[in-house]
Amino acid sequence: MAAVERQLVVAVEGTAAIGPYWSTIVADYVEKIMRNFCASELPGQKLAGAPPELALVVFHTHGPYSAFGVQCSGWTKDTDAFLSWLLGISFSGGGFSEASTCEGLAEALTILQGSPNTTTQSHQNHEAQKHCILVTASNPYPLPTPVYRLPTQSVDHKENIESSKEPSIADAETVAKSFAQCSVSLSVISPKQVPTLKAIYNAGKRNPRAADPSVDHAKNPHFLVLLSENFMEARTALSRPLPGNMAPNQTITKMDTAPAVTMSGPTSNANSSG
């Protein structure tokens, strides 16, 4: 019996809009979720098979001042290495431009689904646990834009997954709907209450009627934190304190002096894919 695949992609807006909040977002949310997801055992549940895999996607903005469109790391099973990637992001630019959220989500979904050949021959393990956390503070670019290799999956025939070789024209909500079709959970964390992000989260829900899980907002009452009903590790991580977790800000560095994002392992620029 094949080991259960467990993968998590964190898709982060790399503009200055996130910079001031990043140490809080990592310490209070992303690190807790990641460590709980990668725990060898959860209460009452034995986790067999290979350790979970983690990957990072960084997206920027549309417009002439954008340093890049989308960058992505390779996969890692090393939680400390992944944390160093998160803390190594350099946040700059953005201004009044909308974020390339659509392209960032499309890249995250593409790497979670694997290459088209792999996906079509292996009938997508129904037990696979694949999750994405979108971290952004800006409105997404509102107009449909070309995204490559966007996977789609038939709701009636779950084994029928196709990855388009031609660019699809889509906006962020359309891409979010593909998450639900491909059985990938989508959660959203934002330091601001941005209505368009709530719409993206709702578009990505596999069960539109599912109630949004409650999150402890005592420390950051103005944050928008929407966790997928299918990402149990995230919900448990943020609903109670984890024993043995590091003290807040213990390993957080000042982001204004952080180097540009460095990712050990293969990196790619989504804009160069044709």
UniProtKB/TrEMBL annotation:
InterPro entries from the UniProt entry: Mediator_Med25_VWA, vWFA_dom_sf
SUPFAM superfamilies in the cross-refs: vWA-like (SSF53300)
Swiss-Prot/TrEMBL GO biological process terms: positive regulation of transcription by RNA polymerase II
Cellular component, GO annotation: mediator complex; transcription regulator complex
Pfam family, one: Med25_VWA
Mediator of RNA polymerase II transcription subunit 25 von Willebrand factor type A domain mapped to chain residues: 4-229
Top-level taxonomic group: Eukaryota
Annotated family: Belongs to the Mediator complex subunit 25 family.
Protein name: Mediator of RNA polymerase II transcription subunit 25
Organism this protein belongs to: Panicum virgatum
